[in-house]
């Protein structure tokens, strides 16, 4: 079984009683002796919540049953936290059945051959749940799943088993899978998704969570933030019942790393860190995420986040319109409204391609417009390149606004439903964005390209349980990394120690503070910004530039002026200090050529080694082309020299012992043009074109000289205490990469 990260182990130890010890062996098969042991040992630790949680018990079990594993995996179009069982298998854990208990869970079967769904090769499987005690064993649930013969079985079944007749009894809940045809059924597995007996109900002190992020929603297109057009009547109404944070900022101008920053409460997030959701799993709070943006599920269900107890109980993602997301969220809500829940939604309808429903489009577009922009718009590149005139731009902005209005109308449906279910008061509601959108404010379009206000200033509306602090406006600067600790605090749940953000708190502290943002992604220049009071400094590594703005005198950042006196130096020092964490796994290289021809280099990594998805450009611009698997990078640049930076991911899968990168000269065929590779500060020459990134030869305290060669190409590579980011996950699925490319995220 995958080891449980320490933070999760701690959390499990806190909430889940250790029901077995080394000498007890399997409780399931020890009969009366086991029951005696349970009655004397197990219930000395009274479980708080939940009364029973199979995933937590299996994940925390030091002696898990054979063929039984807690995982977060995708099946039938949904990613769920589940106990996966091969056929045959069984796992049982003690339970004392409370009054009015309901065992709630999902179940599905899946047949995988070399990671390909192959239902036609599977045999029927039987899944049963038993209740065992001294008076015997009884089946309390049974389902037979025939993936081969019944296409309707290729799905998740969401079940509720009424345990009313077992109230007060102590025994074992035993989950079992079996099949008549054992050998051939071996390819099948059964997923039991989060079987739990949950008793907690929401209250003002232990509220539900409805957390919504809207992709690309800039604050100044929200009515509550002064926009004159009717984009957000629902959000505006909610802000009157809650708190409006007038100066809320995303820590990055694109989904990655903004959403990871929000979920990990870390400025430089890694997939090894605990998430906002960890306390939900620990407390047995049913949770679900409905998401349209392929990056987010990738990030929430990979690396350590795929370990039990997982991130959300389930993640449903895809090309979902705001209607689809809302329909599915409301269906899930109906199934979970009786218990305290945590629900996360991410809407993409204000992101290009714009295709708002006609109903909302007609509210915003000028009917007299006669130009090239139609009822939908997807030409990001043309828009960024200045292809559209003022009238066209107005039409494009109207389509953006109509998308916002569409999302707002769906949020209204959600809020109405909470009210009609009488759980609105007991629900903490948080609405924000992952970043804004540039609409030619600085001559460009889309997001990720800069750290100006239009990309960082986002709405943040919080409706506290019972409407506390109703109508309040907070002027203090708050940021994305504050969301997770604040949400958990408002829910009266503990925050993981690793969180860096501040709890905005019930007192809503007004003390001034710095704000830091970062923009680092393969196709974008690397930029960092720091804001203190009205002063903002933006550093661009790519262009080796620093810009400064006085946001009070110049809120649109039209006139770059560095502040006078020592302020600039102080801000630069503090900005570099803030990102010093990045100095661990960054590499830099410099390439120069003998003649005037363009240099073409290809870098490729060993399977366990670096992915180049985190690379950044520096020095003179070259052309970068990344292979679909992220492991091969072609670089073209001038012979006068260019440089770039890349990083290894923190994930252990990318930090193998053989961390090899190979270099080749793509113009070398048939020519006697040697590729010379110099390593680290010493300039030691690499014997081969393959370099081990763990080699001590690569160390260099500063940028080493890289001479222009007499013949061929000179490549200098060093492990530099510069900066790196580790936010991008590997993307193995070609179809997914295609979708991300269509969204403009990768080239
Ligand atoms: Zn986004």
What does this structure look like?
The chain has 747 residues and is of the alpha+beta class. It contains 16 helices and 37 strands. It has a 16-stranded mixed beta sheet that branches. A 6-stranded mixed beta sheet has the order 29-32-27-37-34-35, with no helix packed on it. The longest helix is centred in the middle third of the chain and has 31 residues. The N terminus is likely disordered. The site of zinc ion has 6 residues, from loops.
Q: Which helices and strands, and how do they pair?
A:
Blueprint lengths: L5 H10 L15 H10 L11 E2 H6 L8 E8 L2 E9 L2 E8 L5 E12 L2 E2 L7 E9 L2 E10 L11 E6 L7 E9 L3 H4 L2 E10 L10 E7 L18 H9 L1 E7 L5 H10 L13 H6 L3 E5 L3 H6 L13 E4 L4 H15 L5 E6 L10 H7 L15 H5 L5 H31 L6 E7 L4 E2 L5 E2 L6 H4 E2 L2 E3 L8 E8 L3 H8 L24 E7 L2 E9 L2 E6 L4 E6 L16 H12 L7 E8 L5 E7 L10 E3 L4 E4 L5 E6 L4 E6 L12 E6 L9 E5 L4 E2 L4 E3 L20 E7 L14 H9 L5
Parallel strand pairs: 12-16, 12-17, 13-22, 14-15, 14-16, 34-37
Antiparallel strand pairs: 1-11, 2-3, 3-11, 3-15, 4-10, 5-6, 5-9, 5-11, 7-8, 7-10, 13-20, 13-21, 17-21, 18-19, 23-24, 24-25, 25-26, 27-32, 27-37, 28-31, 28-33, 29-32, 30-31, 33-36, 34-35
Helix pairs in contact: 9-12, 10-12
Zinc ion (ZN) binds next to loops.
CATH superfamily of the largest domain: Alkaline Phosphatase, subunit A
Q: Report the mean per-residue pLDDT as an integer.
A: 83
CATH hierarchy: architecture of the largest domain: 3-Layer(aba) Sandwich
Secondary-structure class = alpha+beta
CATH-assigned fold name of the largest domain: Alkaline Phosphatase, subunit A
Tally of individual helices = 16
* Distinct compounds present: zinc ion
């Amino acid at each position: 079984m995958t080891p449980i990260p320490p933070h999760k182990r701690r959390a499990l130890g806190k909430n889940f009683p250790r029901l077995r010890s080394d000498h007890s062996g399997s409780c399931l098969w020890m009969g009366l002796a086991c029951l005696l042991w349970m009655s004397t040992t197990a219930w000395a630790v009274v479980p708080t919540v939940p009364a029973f949680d199979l995933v937590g018990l299996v994940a925390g079990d030091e002696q898990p049953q054979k063929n039984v594993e807690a995982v977060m995996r995708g099946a039938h179009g949904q990613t769920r936290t589940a106990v996966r069982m091969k056929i045959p298998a069984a796992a049982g854990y003690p339970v004392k059945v409370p009054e009015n208990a309901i065992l709630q869970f999902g179940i599905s079967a899946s047949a995988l051959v070399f990671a390909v769904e192959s239902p036609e090769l599977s045999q029927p499987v039987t899944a049963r749940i038993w209740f065992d005690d001294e008076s015997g064993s009884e089946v309390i649930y049974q389902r037979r799943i025939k993936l081969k013969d019944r296409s309707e079985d290729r799905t998740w079944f969401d079940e509720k088993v009424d345990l009313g007749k077992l109230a007060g009894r102590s025994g074992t809940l035993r989950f079992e899978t079996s099949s008549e045809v054992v050998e051939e059924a071996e390819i099948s597995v059964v997923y039991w998704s989060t079987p739990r007996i949950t008793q907690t109900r929401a209250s003002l002190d232990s509220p539900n969570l409805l957390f919504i992020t809207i992709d690309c929603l800039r604050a100044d297109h929200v009515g509550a933030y002064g926009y004159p057009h009717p984009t957000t009547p629902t959000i505006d109404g909610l802000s009157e019942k809650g708190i409006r944070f007038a100066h809320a900022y995303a820590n990055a101008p694109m989904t990655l790393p903004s959403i990871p920053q929000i979920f990990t409460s870390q400025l430089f997030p890694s997939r090894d860190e605990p998430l906002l959701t960890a306390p939900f799993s620990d407390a047995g709070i049913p949770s679900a995420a409905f998401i349209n943006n392929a990056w987010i599920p990738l990030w929430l269900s990979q690396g350590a986040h795929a370990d039990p107890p997982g991130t959300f109980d389930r993640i449903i993602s895809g090309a979902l319109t705001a209607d689809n997301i809302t329909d599915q969220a409301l269906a899930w809500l109906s199934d979970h409204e009786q218990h305290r829940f945590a629900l996360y939604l991410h809407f993409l309808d204000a992101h290009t391609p714009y295709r708002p429903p006609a109903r909302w489009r007609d509210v915003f577009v000028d009917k007299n417009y006669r130009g090239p922009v139609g009822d939908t718009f997807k030409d990001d590149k043309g828009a960024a390149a200045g292809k559209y005139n003022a009238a066209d731009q107005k039409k494009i902005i109207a389509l953006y606004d109509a998308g916002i209005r569409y999302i707002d109308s769906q949020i209204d449906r959600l809020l109405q439903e909470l009210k009609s279910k009488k759980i609105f008061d007991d629900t903490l509601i948080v609405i924000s964005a992952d970043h804004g959108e540039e609409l030619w404010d600085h001559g460009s379009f889309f997001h990720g390209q800069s750290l100006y206000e239009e990309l960082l200033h986002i709405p943040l509306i919080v409706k506290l349980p019972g409407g506390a602090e109703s109508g309040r406006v907070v002027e203090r600067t708050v940021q994305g990394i504050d969301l997770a600790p604040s949400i958990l605090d408002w829910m009266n749940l503990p925050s993981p120690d690793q969180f860096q953000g501040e709890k905005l708190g019930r007192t809503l502290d007004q003390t001034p503070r710095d704000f830091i943002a970062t923009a680092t992604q393969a196709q974008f220049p690397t930029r960092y910004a720091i804001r203190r009071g009205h002063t903002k400094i933006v550093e661009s590594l790519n262009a080796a530039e620093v810009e400064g703005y006085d946001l009070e005198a110049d809120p649109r950042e039209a006139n770059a002026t560095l502040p006078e006196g020592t302020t600039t130096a102080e801000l630069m020092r503090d900005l570099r200090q803030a990102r010093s964490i990045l100095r661990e796994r960054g590499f830099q290289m410099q390439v120069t050529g003998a003649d005037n021809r363009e240099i073409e280099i290809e870098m490729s990594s060993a399977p366990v080694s670096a992915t180049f998805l985190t690379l950044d450009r520096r020095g003179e611009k070259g052309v970068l082309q990344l292979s679909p698997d992220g492991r091969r990078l072609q670089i073209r640049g001038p012979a006068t020299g260019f440089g770039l930076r890349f990083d290894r991911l923190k994930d252990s899968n990318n930090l193998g012992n053989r961390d090899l990168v190979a270099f080749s000269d793509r113009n070398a065929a048939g020519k006697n043009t040697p590729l010379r590779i110099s390593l680290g500060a010493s300039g030691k020459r690499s014997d081969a074109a393959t370099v081990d990134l763990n080699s001590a030869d690569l160390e260099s305290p500063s940028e080493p000289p890289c001479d222009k060669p007499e013949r061929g190409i000179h490549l200098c590579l060093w492990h530099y205490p510069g900066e790196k980011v580790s936010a991008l996950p590997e993307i193995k699925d070609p179809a997914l990469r295609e979708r991300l490319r269509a969204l403009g995220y990768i080239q």
